[in-house]
Amino acid sequence: MAQAKKAVSKASAKQPRTTARTAVKTYQNYIDGEWVNSHSGEMFENINPADTRDVVGRFPLSTSDDIYAAVNAAQGAFDRWRNTPAPKRAELLFRLGEILVRDKEQHTADMTREMGKVLKEAGGDVQEAIDCTYYTAGEGRRLHGFTTPAEMRDKFAMCVRQPVGLCGLITPWNFPMAIPSWKLIPALICGNTVVIKPAEDTPLSTYNLVKACEEAGIPPGVVNMVTGFGDTVGAALTNHPALRLISFTGSTETGRIVASACAERNAICSLEMGGKNAIIVMEDADIDLAIEGAVWGAFGTSGQRCTASSRLIVHKKVYKQFVKKLVDATKSLRVGNGADARTDVGPVINGEAVEKIMNYIRIGRDEDGATLATGGKRLVRGDYAQGYFIEPTVFSDATPDMRIAQEEIFGPVTTVIPANSLEDAVQIANGVRYGLSAAIYTQNVNRAFRAMNDLYTGIFYVNASTIGAEVHLPFGGTKATGNGHREAGTQVLDIFSEWKSIYVDFSGKLQRAQTDAGHETIVEKSAGSGSGFEDSLYQKAGATILDSADDIWANAEMIVKVKEPIAPEYPRMREGQLLFTYLHLAPDKELTKQLIERKVTGIAYETITDRRGTLPLLTPMSEVAGRMAIQVGAHYLEKMSGGRGILLGGVPGVPAARVVIIGGGVVGTNAAKMAVGMGAHVTMIDTNLDRLRELDDIFLSKISTLASSAYMIQDAISQADLIVGAVLVPGAAAPKLITQKMLKDVPNGAVIVDVAVDQGGCIETTHPTTHSDPTYYVEGVLHYCVANMPGAVPRTSTFALTNATLPYAVKLANKGFHAAIGQDPGLKEGVNTFGGHCTYEAVALAQDIPYTTLDHALKSSTGASV
């Protein structure tokens, strides 16, 4: 609970400590169109941070019961509201905007009193809510979807937006009307109903917004407001199963908790969190203009903005001049009550904020060793005695690695860092965990554009400060600032609506996308029986069933398989035939030889890439195999199955099994998900440090990560109960990372599941086994090295693989091989053999055979390349 808040029981009737007002107004929650008391009957005080004797109001100290009531109200109103035409919803929002305009002056005064920001800034906050309301209401006559050509005649295809459902909104105290409006108004125009929890430090401004919604005629239950503290009301809101979306703005630490809770119940989560924003000042900058921007960016709202300019990166040629002018300008700022028109910088929000900010000032001065150029003190005398006032503070002679230059302080503190060049400045600016806003001051347009391109932030300014967002552009950041969503602009609609694809067939007959495109599809008899697909299902879809594999190979121009051909199938392959399947050629010299000699066009699922450079056709089987690895490993750890007799998740008082996963890709990540979910102690090893950082963020420190080396692997597996080999080098053989000698230190009865067996295995003692005879022992360690592990769950695997492969198969069938690979570079990457040549370099290197580029092979064959 913030120190500025004081809980007051219903029965105590304790008088507030105020000299300015003897009567304190009491407020209520807004649920289902009525203003009601909390179930607890208790209240908390909303206190003026400029004068803690002034109690702004008493608000309900709500409980989870109040959240349940508000959610029930939102649920009851949802169907009626979503079926209200969007232009009609917009009319109510336009009316809301008019009410906010009418009451702007009063809302501004209320905000300054409860939050502390100066009147001009508070007025700007209210104006943002007005602008957001007018702008977003206009979407009521747009909410654009799109149409697109269908694959077949007499068929219409389009995409429309639909509301997400019930939304929980958790808003911060620093922009107590603007940010609630950024969430509330888009949610409403999209047809959602909401429960909003305002920050406990500033509930009055959100109350004013919700009160205006009521006056505008927004129906009961559509907007609900519940006040209280984060650990009770916020937690209940975040974890309520009926809320489809949680939109949160606040600290990074709390945001991670919200994200984790949403992930547990598969809810949508929109996060806007911290920032450590930088202004770059080049030697050609207008220094006076840069000083104005730096002072405004650093000390506006007392530095309590996620976009605050808390780092000033200044070229060394103008560094001393800049620091001197900055210190002079900072000293001239007037600190005081925001209600005084002469005030430049108001108080910080509460006592906890004072402690945090003063601690960072101490760290900067005593631990980091930066120069305290001005400020650094809490103001406690005279008019400051009853408030939370801190001098605007400037540190100079700082280095990029100092804590004050890395961590978000959220107060009137900025740090000046020298830079040698634009490249140096950009590197410093990017060298923090956040990526919200950045700015550059320069007269050189080339430098400006280079910085714009190289700074990894969601917002960028040229010759302006890092603050000052406009509602018609998206607001949000990269890295730890958020989770990829954007508020404001039309992009916010993607948070509060979901896409629905619609197909209208007016042909009057059943049309099948692949068959009706003019292709004949033939299927081997009983090919799908192992996965639960009878021949009759294929026939209903328009396929022809043939009795034997010989007939299929003899008649098909394109063969689509799950696994690579086996030896009895080699004679059936013929020149010019297109083989679309998993090939895994690197360790398989005989199959490679047969494909080349028979001049088969071999397209390997596992080397096709997408626009992001990932492997979309390897992913589904990797997901299945990764999850199976833990399921299988847990089984073989049982004593009756040959293992150590260990329960993977342990029980209270007994340690869980230790699982070591080598490789942090799709297989490894899915294995970790299963292992963590079952309660195991999980260690992941990978060569890519950036990937290890991502995994640490994904699993919220529920796993240990190690940088791959022979020593680290040896040390980890010596204590392991289950080892999962999850290494992939696309198109190449897996490296041998665990030797037989290393296994001597592994406990007897431990289990190895080498998913990399299809690429030769990443363990020296790996050799392929079958589902009927899956295991063997080496050095007392049980090995499970089944090739095609997903074959054990054929129905799941069939659906997963078909979802990924079908679009490519249809593209090859519709466009033909040459046109398809010409239009899709990622599909072209899948071609491993063509016209008697090995066209995938990693395979050629693994087998020490000649490599021919596909373009050269195509030119040799047809006289033209793609």
Sum up the structure in keywords.
single chain; 866 residues; seven-stranded mixed β-sheet; 28 helices; 18% strand; globular
Average pLDDT score = 93
Distance between the termini: 65 Å
Helix share, percent: 25-40%
Radius of gyration: 32 Å
Strand content: 15-25%
Number of strands: 38
Strand sequence of the main sheet, in spatial order? 15-18-19-14-13-21-22
Q: How would a textbook summarize the main sheet?
A: 7 strands, mixed
Question: What would you note in describing this structure?
Answer:
The N and C termini lie far apart (65 Å). A hairpin with a 2-residue loop joins β37 (831-834) and β38 (837-838). The strands form ten sheets. The chain has a seven-stranded mixed sheet with strand order 15-18-19-14-13-21-22, with helices on both faces. The protein contains 28 helices and 38 strands. With 866 residues, it is of the alpha/beta class.
SSE layout and pairing:
Elements (H helix, E strand, L loop, with lengths): L6 E2 L20 E3 L2 E3 L6 E5 L7 E6 L3 H19 L3 H17 L1 H12 L3 H19 L8 E3 L6 E9 L2 E5 L7 H12 L3 E5 L5 H14 L6 E3 L4 H10 L5 E5 L2 H13 L3 E5 L5 E4 L5 H13 L11 E5 L3 H13 L19 H17 L3 E4 L3 E2 L9 E2 L2 E4 L6 H4 L6 E7 L2 H9 L3 E2 L1 E5 L3 H10 L4 E4 L15 E2 L13 H4 E9 L16 E3 L10 H6 L3 E3 L2 H7 L2 E3 L17 E4 L7 H9 L3 E4 L14 H18 L21 E5 L3 H12 L3 E6 L2 H10 L5 E4 L2 H8 L4 E4 L14 H4 L7 E4 L20 E4 L2 E4 L9 H22 L1 H7 L1 H4 L2 E4 L2 E2 L2 H7 L6 H9 L4
Parallel strand pairs: 8-9, 8-11, 9-10, 11-12, 13-14, 13-21, 14-19, 18-19, 21-22, 25-26, 27-28, 28-29, 30-31, 30-33, 31-32, 33-34, 34-36
Antiparallel strand pairs: 1-4, 2-3, 4-5, 6-7, 7-24, 15-18, 16-17, 20-23, 29-37, 35-36, 37-38
